[in-house]
Amino acid sequence: MTMIENLVWEAAKIMFPNSYIDPKRITKAKENLLESLMKNN
User: What residues does each domain of the chain span?
Assistant: First the structure.
C-alpha cells in the first residue's frame, strides 16, 4: 500500500467510522486525489 492509499484509508476510517470501507472505493478516491493534485501543479 502506498502512502497516498494509507492517507485515503485513514481519512475514510475517520469519515465513516462504523461502516465497511470497500477497497475499490479507496482506489477510486486515490485516483481522484492524484488527478486533482496533478491539476493544481
Answer: 3-40
The pTM assigned to this predicted structure is 0.52
Condensed to tens digits (0 to 9), the pLDDT of residues 7-35 reads 888 888 888 888 887 888 888 888 888 88
Nearest to 5 by CA among 16, 21, 17, 19: 21
Q: How many CB atoms lie within 10 A of CB 8?
A: 23
Helices within 1-41 (DSSP H only): 3-15, 23-40
| Max intra-chain CA distance, the chain | 35
